[in-house]
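Question (not urgent): is this output format expected?
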Amino acid sequence: MSLDKQSEQLLEMDDKTRDKVALVMRQTDYNQETALEKLKLHEYNEINVVKEYLGVPIKKAAAPIKSVNQEIYKQLRNKLDSNMRDYQVRVEKGEAKKIL
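Got this back:
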């Protein structure tokens, strides 16, 4: 990309975007064009761009529990499911007591 085109592109960006591009360029070895593309890809989140560059996985936020009651039943379901899996393993091994 020519120097004139880069300066035109810088003038077209607003201050926040220009600052974010500059930050990404300082923290990585990306040039201005690549930094801007990566920012657009990550919805202008400069932290995620740097994390991607460093190879740090970007964690997605888990869906929040809507109420205490939902959390209680979620925990009950998980506990019962794990107990049932353990029981099935014991049955397959023949360790479960046979009740007659």
